[in-house]
Write a structure and sequence with these properties.
This protein is α+β, with helices and mostly antiparallel strands. The chain contains 3 helices and 8 strands. The protein folds into 2 domains: 62 residues, no CATH class; 72 residues, no CATH class. Helix 1 runs antiparallel to helix 2.
């Protein structure tokens, strides 16, 4: 997971990089990368920018923090890595909700410049920086 700046939150919300998953998408037998604006474009009757504007207004009005949480794959591509466990996802969400992650140190991941915590109760710290979960880091 990463704590997003305002600009990062808007970018990732509108781009909606996600995956089609077997069992939830017709004809899909293994995960497929895709983009779905606002992470739910098929269900949005209005233009994605309207929803982004609404999000921006709420974030600014309430000085809200925005988090990007990976509930998908970790440790390698499909067939190599594995799905994030519910136990890990719950620990991350609990730490966001109770404010724990406001008090820890962060490191910056190159590329997207994600700010990721270096610790989170109930989560193996190696999992917090996704490159650490890949056996072959050059493939990451």
């Amino acid at each position: 997971m990463s704590k997003l700046s305002f600009d990062q939150a808007m970018y990732h919300f509108v781009s909606g990089y996600t995956a089609k998953v077997a069992g939830t998408e017709m004809g899909v037998t293994e995960p497929q990368s895709t983009f779905s604006a606002c992470f739910g474009e098929a269900f949005l009757p209005k233009h994605p920018y309207l929803y982004a504007k609404m999000l921006a207004e709420k974030v600014e009005k309430y000085d809200a923090h925005v988090w990007l949480v990976n509930t998908g794959w970790s440790g390698g591509a499909y067939g190599v890595g594995k799905r994030m466990s519910l136990k890990t996802t719950r620990a991350i969400l609990d730490s966001i909700h109770d404010g724990t992650l406001e008090k820890v140190e962060y490191e910056t991941i190159p590329g997207f410049k994600f700010e990721v915590p270096t610790s989170c109760p109930g989560v193996d710290s190696a999992m917090l920086n996704p490159i650490n979960t890949w056996k072959h880091k050059s493939v990451f």
